Predict the 3D structure of the following.
Amino acid sequence: MSRVSRCIAVGAAVLAATLPAPARAQSILDRLRQAAAVARTLLPISTDKEIEIGRGIAATIAGRYPLSSDTALTRYVNLVGLTVAGQDPRPDITYHFAVLETPTVNAFAAPGGYVFITRGSLALIRSEAELAGVLAHEVGHVNAKHVINQIRKADFTREVKSAVDIQGAVLDRFVGAGTNALFMGLSRGDELEADSLGLEYAAAAGYDPGGLAAFIGRLSSHAGEGALADFYATHPKPDDRVDRLSAIAQREHLAGGADLESRYRASVRSAQ
Amino acid sequence: MSRPGIARWHPPQGQTVRAAHRKCRAWCGARPARRLALAALLAAGTAAAAEAQRAEWTDVVYVPGRWAAGKLVSRKTTDSRTDSLALVMRVDYFSAPPRWRAEIRRTADGQTMGNPDIVIGEGTRAVVVTALGATPLEQHVLGQDPLVRAAMVFDRNGRAPGPAAGRIAERAADGSVGRVVFRRSVKNPSFADALLDPGARSGGRSLLASGISAVGDQRQASVVATAGARGVDNIQTPSGAVPVKPDSMAILRMEHFTVGSVALEEFLRTGGLGPYAPAKSDSGGRQP
């Protein structure tokens, strides 16, 4: 081997040691590519507009299922939610969490940081780590602007020249499109990305990273129940998600963390 | 004679000029393409190394004692594992040596955290950044606070000592426990360079700054009214269209539901979460 080749080999080794891990680098590249693809074609929407649209969507969600007036339960869900949302790298978003009074099993995230979880979901969840996983998944949707990107793909948005025009009747159309996207279900890719982000946030907050997978896995044994009909219609197959979450946890060496089953029981089970 | 501005090159000791030139040619590459590849490789390596030096971490600072009716009742102890602790301060650090930034939030009553005081430094020099400008830390009232002084621990290279994560008990001169710090590092620091610029005052980017304490005061009621004016909507669901009347008041209630920053800190502590999570040897958090 010539000296130059040796020099290049040493340089490459140094570079490999200092660059982020290949898997992470690949994931960053994927996200950059996705972001670039969206940015090339679609109307830019500022954080303020995102919050305005999200507030309208949140109002529609709260219109369909009433908000719980259980202060202790809402406080607990907010504490868990804020713990995982603290790992979200978007400082421009203020997160709010609420419980919806319905036996339906589901959770929703409106743009701008409005996150909801249903009583039906809380009844199936067994630990705080599972709740953290579900809420972190929703925070992942907000972070990645999945609903906003879905709205921007709608035909009517081509008539809107700038984000300033998103007001009045135009704002209503944005809210309507976002609400329908949320209730009809986001794409499989969006759901899987939210799973991945949720796993990352929950683990970074100190929770057992297996929480989300444990909850999704439990849903399989309740398949066919009425309360889960909408969930199954709007999300990828639970088994696929569990496999993928396990693979990510293994790849990123995520293990350990707090489960906090008894605190969950004390905070939620007593409220039911 | 050497050209002005260019240092004369001397062969390393024990080598002839010719042998040294031969060695140099071999390392630098005889062809421009090789030279370019080498330069690119080295530049990329340098950039990656600089990126690897960035660090972001949080210290939650306690002192032995407790809060009683809004007053701090101190307690003297030599037991570094004591759990009788009163929360006094939270500091979020952002560092790209030699520059760094500390966002300091203190509690005066054990109930609420104040807005962040922002200190930006380069090496051991630090300024407090306010809306009016930057004041050297030693001339600012913050610089007189022993807790703040204890938190400004950067050396002349802008590095801070100590572990990346875990519980750190610091003793006073008499051997009693002075501060107990719970530290947690961010695995992949992602802050913008502008945060380290004294000219750009951002009100803090952490949860406690932008999240909890500010709830409810940044939204306009008119926005809510707009959303509520839509009347009944028909939303599409997997089981068909469903008429829904948006409930804007519920969202106002949601926005006004606040969880105090001190309550969140207590929640994290009792659950062993965030900065209170047990330190792992392979946590990936970078040394501050």
